[in-house]
Design a protein that fits this description.
It comes from Halanaerobium kushneri. This is Ribbon-helix-helix protein, copG family. The structure is a single chain. The chain is built from 4 helices and no strands. The protein is mainly α and 64 residues long. The protein has a domain of 39 residues. The N and C termini lie far apart (46 Å).
């Protein structure tokens, strides 16, 4: 893993760190989890695969 930097309001950062700590996690874990889920949700390949899986029978029938 690589260290990354970003800008954030100091009060928001303190609040985020406290909430993650109080829930038994930490800011780094939650940021990585957010990015992973965001990428998965918004990836064109993932969107295509989800649409394909949800409509596989119809798409296979149309392909014939």
């Amino acid at each position: 893993m690589k260290i990354k930097q970003f800008r954030i309001d100091e009060e928001e950062w303190k609040k985020f760190k406290k909430i993650t700590h109080d829930s038994g996690s930490n800011a780094s874990v939650e940021i990585r989890r957010f990015i992973k889920e965001y990428n998965k949700k918004n990836s064109q390949e993932e969107i295509f695969n989800e649409i394909y899986e949800n409509h596989k029978e119809v798409l296979d029938a149309l392909a014939k």
